[in-house]
Specification:
The chain is mainly alpha-helical. Helix content is 91%, strand content 0%. The chain starts with a helix and ends in a 7-residue tail after the last helix.
């Protein structure tokens, strides 16, 4: 019986501390969960921004390449139209 009283006394001394630790653990666990959700949302936002920027960069590069090709084709077409009119003795190889 004496041991039970000693254990009860020990529990009475540490009981409030254990309860406080449980509350603190619950709060820390909730805070960690909130941080995890925030980090996941930030990662998703970074991925979406990266995809959009990649798409925009590809559009710009495609436009520049297409513009360069059409400019060269227009130049060649213009030369083909002008050369026969201006040079009658031109020999094409």
């Amino acid at each position: 019986m004496k041991q039970v009283k000693q254990l009860s006394s020990i529990y009475a001394d540490f009981g409030p501390s254990i309860d406080e630790l449980a509350v603190k653990y619950g709060a820390l666990s909730e805070q960690a969960n909130t941080q995890r959700i925030d980090q996941t949302n930030a990662s998703n936002l970074i991925v979406i921004i990266s995809i959009v920027l990649t798409f925009i960069i590809l559009l710009v590069i495609s436009f520049l390449v297409a513009n360069n090709i059409t400019t060269k084709i227009k130049t060649i077409s213009h030369i083909i139209e002008v050369v026969p009119k201006s040079a009658t003795d031109l020999v094409l190889i």
